[in-house]
């Protein structure tokens, strides 16, 4: 979990909200028991989406980030998809190796 914390803070510092948000959306769509458990722990620690208040180039509002962590659907006026943790919001699940590579 500390790696996820470092990744999030680093992405905020470097303005990499898009990459982090894509990663965290894929993580929340976990299909394995192990990843689902990790997502629950990350969610409880509030390691959600990076908002436009944190990084100017982010397209995620505070309301969308809140809804994402709560597991609620959110239709952004800026883009047609939602912030929920559904398969429609995520391109394809990543393997554990892919997730580890993104953290490194």
Q: What is the H/E order? A: HHHHH
The N- to C-terminal Cα distance equals 13 Å
Strand content: under 5%
Shape: globular
| Low-pLDDT segments, ≥5 res | 86-91
Number of E-type strands: 0
Q: Output the number of helix runs.
A: 5
Largest sheet composition: none
The total number of structural domains is: 1
Rg, rounded, reads: 13 Å
**Quick check: average pLDDT?**
82
- Please estimate the helix content: 40-55%
Structural class: mainly alpha
Could you explain how this protein is built, in words?
Helices cover 52% and strands 0% of the residues. About 6% of the residues have low confidence.
Outline of the structure:
By secondary structure, this protein is mainly alpha-helical. It has one domain. It has helices at 2-14, 17-28, 33-44, 62-70, 96-103.
List the helices and strands and how they pair.
Blueprint: H1 2-14, H2 17-28, H3 33-44, H4 62-70, H5 96-103
Which keywords apply here?
104 residues, mainly alpha, 5 helices, 52% helix, Ku C-terminal domain-containing protein, Ku_PK_bind, Ku_C_sf
